[in-house]
Amino acid sequence: MSAYARGGRRLGPTATVAALLAASTASAQPAYPSWVFFGSAEGGTSGFASAGFKRGLTGGLYEPGLFLQGSLGSGNYSYRSRVVEGGRATGRVLGASLMPGAQWSAGNTTFGFFVGPEIERHWLTPPDPDNRARGTRWGLRGQIDIWSHPTPRTLVTATLIGGTAAPHLWSRLSAGYRLFEAFYFGPEASAYASPDYRELRLGLHATGLTLRGLTFRLSGGLRIDSDDRTGAYAGLTTHASY
């Protein structure tokens, strides 16, 4: 696997999870906020963190209209290399994106679409001349979100992200049932694909936990990748609306 694949793996999805979390728990929020600020962290064989915002440009955060979403993230990763001594290299990535978009509803289902520029910077140790992700790369990122309440006590979400700075596709499906009138709990599955790397995750999530004005999403489970590594993953996302 190369960092060319790995670089975009977390920076976009972690920010997206936070923005989607804000929308999916809108029923617990007042109708007037137009800003949401979010942060995410997750770990497995690598570690990534991000922070960002989503801003309603033509109305409230939970109303149909035009939006602007931005994020900044950083992470560390390792990967197999054919050319460096020892066969493995480590990388550090810093990335950002800024995506205008739109959000609209049909019944109990809300749809979101965003597209805009992204930039990533990779530092590799030791230097890996076989890695196309080294240095700074600009690209275009697109995102589709769907979140739905089929019944008053259920939540279903779907997300698809594609980026060209480090060409990749990432998708996630989740479903949840509301427990204790406090949060949604249920299964999730995500998949990532790039020219030379694949990853599948299967796990559970708890979405909508609240504490001191913050809303949280916790997730964890099993991950399998094309580097022949199998292990656990865990993630934490939080947001606040204003």
From TrEMBL:
This protein's encoding gene: bcsS
Signal peptide location: 1-28
Keywords: Signal
A Pfam family the protein falls into: CBP_BcsS
Species of origin: Chelatococcus albus
Protein name: Cellulose biosynthesis protein BcsS
